[in-house]
Amino acid sequence: MSERDWIHRYIRPLVRAEGADDLRDDVAELSTFSSTIATMDTLVEGQHFLSSDPLNTVGQKLVRVNVSDIHAKGAVPKEALLSIAWPKGRGEAEFADLMAGIAIDLREFGIDLIGGDTVSTDGPLVLTLSLTGQCLGDGPVRRAAQAPDGASLWLSGPIGGGAIGLRAAIEGGLESDLQRYRCPPTTKVMHAQAVAEAGLAAIDVSDGLLLDALSLAEINGRGVHINLERVWLYRATSDLPLIMEQATGGDDYQILMIAKDGVKIDPEAFLQIGHIKSKPGLTLSFHDEPIPLPHKLGFEHQA
Length: 303
Description:
By secondary structure, the protein is of the alpha+beta class. The protein contains 8 helices and 12 strands.
C-alpha cells in the first residue's frame, strides 16, 4: 500500500483543523497566526540520501526540501525546529559536518533555529526539520483551487538534475552531476513572490514532474497537458528517453504553478510548459506530436 493510501486511511480521519486543508498540501496554515504556515520533512539514511554522501550536503538538503515547500505556497521561510536521530556508531566530527551544512543554509535563507530534539539510535541517521513561513500574500497558494480549463502551467527551473545526479552517485559520473544530487538548488524569494502574485495553485516538484503535475491536476478535478519541448531540463536534449528520465526522476525542488488568467509572469522566474484541461489524466506532446506516457510517472512513496 502506498504512503498516500496509509495517510488517507489512518491519518486524515484525525485531522480537523481548517488550516490543514484536509492534508491535500505540504503545508498547514497555523490558526493562531495570520498568514503563517508550517511544513515538515524527514530524510532517512539509505532512503533519501546515501550513506556515502558528505553530511554537510545532507544538512543542506534537509533545509532545502523544506524551503521549496514554503516557496511553493508563495511564502518565505522564518523559523525551524530540528530533530536528529543520531546513530551510535557515528562520531562528533561527522555531527559537526552535518551541523555546518545546516548552518550554511539557515543563513542563506534567513531561517532562525528555535529548538528541536536529539536522540541516539541503533538504526540509520534520521533527520527532521519543521519550518514555518510567512505568506507574501493574504494566505498560502494551495494545490486545490478549481483551476479552469485552459489555465496555463508554469515551471520555475530546470528539472532532471536529481535523477541524473543520483545515477552519477551510484554508477559514477560527472562531479557536477553528483553535486546536483547531493545539494539540489532550490527556488528563491523571487519565485515565492511570483507564486503569491500569479499563482492559482502550486506544488513543489519533488516526486517527478509528470507525477506532480498529474497530482496537481487531479486535486483540482482536472487533467493536464505538458509540451515536453518546452520543459526546462537540467540536461537539454531532444532524446525522448533522456527527457523522460529527467521528467520522472524527482528530487528537483522546483515549483509547478497553475497561473491566474491575465497575470503577467516574470520570464526569469517561470517558464510556461503546458495547460490544464477538462478531461482527466495526463497527456504529453513533443513538437506537436502525441507521446505515450512512460510506465512510471515518478517516485511513489511506500509506507
